[in-house]
Amino acid sequence: MLVKKFDLQPVFIYYEGEDVGEIVARETANLTEALAPIARVLAPVAFSGHLPEDLTGPVFFLYPLRLGCGEALAKLQEKGDVILFAADLPYRALDALEEISDRANVHLVFSYGEAREKALFLGIRDTLRGLHVLALVPDLPSYTALLDRRYDRSALRHRLGVEVDILGKDEFLAWFARADGEEAARAWLARARAADENEVRRTGQLYQALRNFLEDRGYQAVAISCHARKMDPLYVPCLGLGRLRDEGIPAACEADLASLTGMILVDLLRNQPAFMGNVVGMDAHTITLSHCAMPLRLMGDEPLPYELADYHGGRWPGVTAEVEVPVGAPLTVLRVSRSAETMIVTEGRIVARPQDGRACRNTLQVEVPDPALLLRKTSGNHHVLACGHFAGELARLGEFLGMDVTAL
Questions:
Q1: Residue 278 CA to chain centroid, in angstroms?
Q2: Quick one: fold of 132-407?
Q3: Packed helices 112-128 and 391-400: angle between N→C axes, nearest 10 degrees
Q4: Are 325 and 245 a contacting pair, CB within 8 Å?
Q5: Could you tell me if 369 and 408 are in contact, meaning their C-beta atoms sit under 8 angstroms apart?
Q6: Which of 155, 183, 199, 408 is deepest in the core (most CB within 10 A)?
Q7: d(Cα 41, Cα 131) in Å, to the nearest integer?
Q8: How far apart are CA 45 and CA 23, in angstroms?
């Protein structure tokens, strides 16, 4: 997913009579380098008297070269978000804060690295506010009611600005019928032995239909029910969901909007796909998570090796991929609540890949700091796993978005 770029106006306030041209040029260059490609840094504005009236934002970078910048800060705050730089002499920035009563859109930073992170968070916030998500479910009023009990769509809209549309499968069937999934099926079959080639082709058809529909309707992410009987012939989309994730389209199974929200945050923050899984085991040092839809690029741009296998040992029709995720790989684990009110996040590493021919095809045993505490504080069963250690950054993003975050 692409984070929306925005215009940022550098504003320098200095004492009358000072020659600040060199400082302004140098610091604007540093800012431009730090924020590329997150924001378009506009030409700097430097003044010693009153704030120019024609500044429009929507984001300002305020560099206080003197005391007494509070009035200008308050006026900038009325126009948009302000990144307040406090690296050189912090008291000048802190003095400016004395003049404002609400810091909701004023972000104090002490380095250009922090400025970059805040700019990224601002871009993510604005991207979320325009995000349109599809939930594809059986044509049953009871299922839609179930979805609304489990996930608070109005809260997702209010807190994050994310719009979720629920669509019954019957409206989608025409897209499935005319989709050509041969190219996707050939790509899967070329790299692995299939349990059932017809199932691979049907899944390729479903993947292509989803891809076409999302693009046509302007959806950026999807959550789909995968109930074999109720979603016939759209059941078991595991291979297709993994491929969508690899292409930058967050895609959750079991119509799980909480996991989808976590995937979206990871994708926007790190530009990488994520895995979601049930917690199927725990001991003193590890949790074990298991599911079937695994992105092949979980560890980076190079696809991981995999084998195609029947779905849950053939108990239900379908085919999925068993992916060779490397033992020892670092992971970040998170769970966002149904209303995006809370998030829990921790870091760990893969210590084993248990195998069970009749269970989900991708099972990861992950060492984490406090498994029992993680599960006591979590809000549900599915958790999102992503490659790398970035729990701190993710926690700061959650707090920036107004979530109550627990970082273990």
A1: 19
A2: L-fucose Isomerase; Chain A, domain 3 (3.20.14)
A3: 60
A4: no
A5: yes
A6: 199
A7: 24
A8: 12
How many angstroms separate the CA atoms of 221 and 234, rounded?
Answer: 17
At 22 the pLDDT is 97
- Mean pLDDT of the region 369-389: 96
**Structural domain spans, the chain:** 6-128, 132-407
Q: How far apart are CA 132 and CA 214, in angstroms?
A: 10
Nearest to 407 by CA among 348, 330, 340, 329: 348
- Adjacent-strand bridge partners of 301: none
Pairing of strands 45-47, 6-13: parallel
Collapse the DSSP code of 86 into the 3-class scheme (helix H, G, I; strand E, B; otherwise coil) and give the result.
coil
Does the pLDDT at position 226 exceed 90?
Answer: no
- Give residue 146's pLDDT: 87
The dotted CATH code for 6-128 is: 3.40.50
pTM (predicted TM-score): 0.95
What phi, psi does 72 have (nearest 5°)?
-65, -40
Instruction: With beta carbons less than 8 A apart as the criterion, state whether 99 and 67 touch.
Output: no
Mean pLDDT confidence for 140-155: 90
